[in-house]
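Chain A, query sequence.
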Amino acid sequence: MTPGRPSRRRGALDRLSPKDALAVVYELLLHREPDDHGLTTYLPALRAGTLSPTLLAERIMASAEWWTVVDFTELSTSLHFSRSVFVRSLPRARRILDLGGTALGSTQGAMVLMGYPYRFEELVVVDLPQDDRNELYREERDDAEQQVVETGLGPVHYHYHSMTDLSSYADGWFDLVYSGQSIEHVSVSDADKVLAEVARVLRPGGYLGLDTPNATVCRLQQAEFIDPDHDYEYTHAEMVEKLGAAGFEIVEAKGLNHAGASLAAGEFSMTDTATQRGLFADIESCYLLSYVCRTPEKAP
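Chain A, predicted structure.
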């Protein structure tokens, strides 16, 4: 058993017959009945006990079919999956600032919950006080109850104020700033202030990771903003201009959830966009924009 991990109890899948377990895994993950490959490859191994139902499920989730063919019908779930892939791609950092990084229902914070893989000395989450949040993002708790949370990666500190005011943080203190689905919640002018302050609090050569809705695809989905709490949704060109004006070099620009089929047809398809999950080089045809940017190694 891996140190620090609890032993896995015998689950419901393990109590099924091998044939029923195979059928359940295929139905849940691939949305179909087992084919000849599954019957001839997996069923004998399940019967022999050399393959558990849980390991079978892991193999199916790692398959090309699960990644590229199986329909996802709920876009929000699919986007969360893709954003988790993006968060895991962010650089290693000792001191991190997460703008808007509260995770509803979890005290660990969004970055830890989505799988940021590296240990850190300090992760500061900046978010609005409960009373100042849109009702969509409020929780039934007192902010004073959540100030510092110890996680397996390091301590997460919660600071409750607007991300437009980073004046309490020293110049060059952070190695990485993450803005996940937050820049669209402030005005265009305030976004410029945020990015300027992010550049200030990052060390020379420090990184900014940012993801935000792509207005080109969102306007195809619906005429109004996709979230009533959004103030402005950006196109890729607008975001590139904004990041450059703040002095950032874009190291990597990728799209999350490809919506190329919708754009080609001129009509938004929830299922197609949810199914094409992950990171894509064709950023302008994706539902979300994501960027890894860097500050200059030396001040200009």
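The longest strand covers residues 202-213. Residues 1-7 have pLDDT under 50 and may be disordered.
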